[in-house]
Amino acid sequence: MTIFDIIAVLLGLSAAFGFINHRFLKLPHTIGLVVMALASSGVVVLIDLVFPALGIAPTATAVLSQIDFTQTVMNGMLSVLLFAGAVHVNFDELASKKWVIGLLATVGLLMSTALVAVAMWLIFSLFGVPIPFVWALVLGALISPTDPVAVLGILKTVPIPASLKAKIAGESLFNDGVGVVVFTVILAVAAGGENVSIGEVAELFFVEAGGGALLGIGAGYLAYLAMRSIDEHNLEVLITLALVLGTYSIALHLEISGPLAVVIAGLFIGNHGARFAMSEKTRTHVFQFWEISDEIFNSVLFLLIGLEVLVVSFRPDLVGIALLAIPIVLVARWISVGIPISALKFGGQFSDGAITILTWGGLRGGISVALALSLPDNQYKAPILTITYAVVVFSIIFQGMTMKWVVARFIKKND
Questions:
Q1: Rounded Cα–Cα distance for residues 326 and 362 (Å)
Q2: CA dihedral sign, ordered 97, 103, 109, 115
Q3: CB within 8 Å of 124: residues ≥ 6 apart
Q4: Is the distance from CB of 261 to CB of 247 less than 8 angstroms?
Q5: Which pLDDT score is estimated for 195?
Q6: Buried b (16+ CB within 10 A) or exposed e, 141-174
Q7: What is the reported pTM?
Q8: SS3 category, 357
Q9: How far apart are alpha carbons 178 and 109 in whole angstroms?
C-alpha cells in the first residue's frame, strides 16, 4: 500500500469508529477509538484462528507494519499535538502555578522514574526474568511522564476548576518534554554502559532541555514579529504551521528537545501572540485550525494505539508482571505527586482531593508506547514493551473512563 492508501485507511477507520462511538457507545472520543480499535484487533485475531485461509490477520499486520509508530508519533504527530495543546493553555494561570508544575515536571518525574525502576527491578527478579537495574530505569523513564495528548483530551470532557486544570495541563505539557530528555539520557547510559560519564550525562540533559527551551522562545518570537506586521488570517495560520514543523525539524537536527521547543512556542503564540499580534478574525481562524488539527491527529493516534496490538510482540509469561506494573506505576505516581504538593501545601493552594485527582488524571499514552518501540532490539525490549502497553491501555481506558467520577468524588471548592 502507498502512504496515501495508509492515510486513507486510518482516517476512514477514525471517522467510522468515531461515528459508531458517538451514536452508540457514547464514550469520550479518544477512549472510544482505543476500545473499538482493540476490539477490532481481537476480532481480526479470532477470525484468523477460526478461518486461517482468509489471511485477514497477516494482511492487517502487513499494513500496520508499514507504519513506523515511533517515527510517526515522535517525529511527526507529536509536534502538532503538543503545539495544539499548548496554544490553548492560559499562560497566566500556568504562571500562577509555576512552582507546583515545575516540581511535578522535574522532581516528581525523577522520583517516579526511580520508584518504578526499583519496584519493577525487584518484580522482574521475583518472576525469574532479571534485567539490569539501568534497563529498569529506562522503563521508569518512559512510563513516568504523563501524556499531554491523553491528558488534555480527557480534560475537555471533564468539568475541572481552572486552577486544578492548569496544574494538570501544565505538568503534562512540561513533564513530557523533560521526560523524553530523561529517557534519552538514561537510554544513552544503558546502551553505552561504563563509557558514559556523569559529566556527559549532565551535559546531554542541559543541552537537550536548555537548547529546546531557547529554540522555542526564539522561533516563537520570530513568528510573533511576522504575524504582528500583517493582518491576513490565512497567511498567519500558515505561519503557525510553519513554526511548528520548522521548529521541531530544527530541534531534531540539532539533537535538542523538540517537545519543549514547540510547547514553549505554542504558549507564546497562544497567549502573547494572540493578544498583540492577531486581530479578532485571525484569532478565531488560528484557534479553530489548531483545534481541528488536534482532533484529527488525536483520533489517528489513539486508533493506532489500539491497532498496534496486532504488530507488537507480547510474551504470555509476562502477563503477571504487566498486571503488577499497573498498581506500581499508580503508587509511584501518587508518591511523586504527593511529596511535592505536600511541600507546597502550606499556602493553602490545594484541596484534599488534589493529590488523588492529579494521580488518577496522570494518563499515559502514545508517547510511552513510541519510546518503548524505539528501544534497541535486545532481550530487555520485549518485557519493557509488554509492560508499557498494558499500563497505557489501562490508563487510557479505565483511568480515562472513571476520571469524571473521581473528580466529582474528591474535588473541593477551594481548589
A1: 13
A2: negative
A3: 130, 131, 136, 321, 383
A4: yes
A5: 64
A6: bbbbbbbbbbbbbbbeebebeebbbbbbbbbbbb
A7: 0.90
A8: helix
A9: 8
3-state secondary structure 192-227: HHHHCCHHHHHHHHHHHHHHHHHHHHHHHHHHHHHH
Place of cell 490477520: 57
Q: Give the separation between CA 248 and CA 147, rounded to whole angstroms.
A: 18
Q: Where are the beta strands (DSSP E) in 106-258?
A: none
Question: Is the sign of the CA dihedral 258, 335, 85, 65 positive or negative?
Answer: positive
Per-residue model confidence (pLDDT) at position 415: 47
Distance CA 371, CA 93 (A): 30
Nearest to 37 by CA among 17, 63, 59, 58: 17
| Phi/psi of residue 176, nearest 5 degrees | -65, -50
pLDDT digits (tens, 9 = 90+) for 276-304: 999 999 999 999 999 999 999 999 999 99
Distance CA 138, CA 190 (A): 8
Left (φ > 0), alpha (ψ -120 to 50) or beta: where does 116 sit? alpha
DSSP assignments along 253-301, one per residue: HHTS-HHHHHHHHHHHIIIIIHHHT--HHHHHHHHHHHHHHHHHHHHHH
Please list the alpha-helical segments (H only) found in 2-65.
3-20, 29-50, 56-65
For 40-110, list the strands marked E by DSSP: none
Question: Which of 115, 80, 246, 263 lies closest to 181, judged by CA?
Answer: 263
Enumerate residue ranges in the chain where pLDDT < 50. 347, 413-415
Query: What is the model's pLDDT at position 414?
Result: 43
Q: What is the pLDDT of residue 413?
A: 47
Q: For residues 233 and 236, give the distance between their C-alpha atoms in angstroms, rounded to a whole number.
A: 5
267-298 b/e with 16+ CB inside 10 Å = b?
bbbbbebbeebbeeebbebbbebbeebbbbbb
Tell whether the torsion through CA atoms of 156, 160, 162 and 167 is positive or negative.
negative
How many Å apart are CA 381 and CA 379, to the nearest integer?
Answer: 6
Spatial contact of 228 and 276, defined as CB atoms under 8 Å apart: yes
Report d(CA 242, CA 291) in Å as an integer. 16
Residue 353 DSSP symbol: T
Q: Look at phi and psi of residue 255 and say left if phi exceeds 0, alpha if psi is from -120 to 50, else beta.
A: left
Nearest 5 degrees, angle CA 139-CA 142-CA 143? 80
Which residue reads 534519552 in cell numbers?
A: 184
Set out the domains of the chain in order of their start, with CATH numbers.
3-65 (no CATH), 69-410 (1.20.1530.20)
